[in-house]
Write a structure and sequence with these properties.
about 0% strand, 3 helical TM bundles of succinate and fumarate reductases, binds protoporphyrin IX containing FE, transmembrane, mainly alpha
Length: about 210
């Protein structure tokens, strides 16, 4: 296999795992935005969505897509040269997304393994407790912003449309702010169930 075909194969894998993941992410972020309405709205939407993404076949495909996205992304880092600002933004946002996906999905799987329901409160606990909120606000804010920057950079490289690309990036940042606002009850901070508080204390030592 020539170096050229290898890069093409990696790119193809990265592209298709990215598309698969994007479908989940669109529903997932819509679910997170429900926190602006109420905890119960978030829980109800997640319950409905879980009937699809928690199906063993769908979840297996999703987890394979996560692993493929991270592995192919990291390998592409070493095989491509980045010159333009858009290429740099694509690579740096992708690096953060790889880090985020590993920790986020790892935490969800670990939480489930310990017997916790990884529902609204699982994510909300870190965001509403002190001092973990100082870690989780930038952690989630950057994750959602990184997705829109990644997509905006790809859009710019493919179409050259600066207006649309900036629009995609700004929308992502606004969605990120809205999710944090919803999860923290407009920064008035939510009371968390004891089991979720305990899980965060174990990790952050307070
Ligand atoms: C910004 C706010 C986000 C919050 C509050 C959040 C919260 C959650 C929660 C609570 C779960 C567990 C779902 C369940 O048990 O049914 C979860 C799972 C997951 N999240 Fe997120 N998430 C966020 C962003 C993201 C982003 C940006 C990505 C992708 C880059 C992502 C990818 C995933 C994946 C792949 C799973 C595993 C699904 C499964 O197999 O059950 N999340 N997230």
């Amino acid at each position: 296999m020539t170096r050229h075909t290898k890069v093409f194969t990696l790119k193809t894998w990265h592209y298709y795992s990215g598309i698969t993941l994007s479908v989940f992410i669109a529903f997932h972020l819509f679910n997170q935005l429900m926190s602006l309405h109420s905890e119960n709205a978030h829980l109800a939407v997640m319950k409905a969505f879980r009937t699809v993404y928690r199906h063993p076949v769908v979840e297996t495909i999703l987890l394979i897509a996560v692993a493929s996205q991270v592995v192919t992304g990291i390998r592409l880092l070493f095989s491509s040269k980045r010159k333009s600002a858009a290429e740099k933004i694509q690579v740096y946002s992708g690096m953060y997304l790889s880090f985020f996906l590993l920790f986020h999905v790892g935490a969800v799987l670990y939480g489930r393994f310990t017997g916790l329901d990884t529902n609204f409160y699982f994510a909300a606990a870190g965001l509403n407790m002190y001092p973990s909120t100082f870690f989780f606000i930038p952690y989630y804010l950057l994750a959602v912003t990184a997705i829109s920057l990644h997509v905006a950079a790809i859009h710019y490289i493919k179409t050259g449309s600066g207006g649309w690309s900036r629009g995609i990036a700004v929308i992502g940042f606004i969605v990120a702010l809205l999710i944090i606002t919803g999860f923290t009850d407009r920064f008035q901070w939510r009371k968390m169930p004891a089991a979720n508080e305990q899980f965060i204390r174990q990790t952050f030592g307070r």
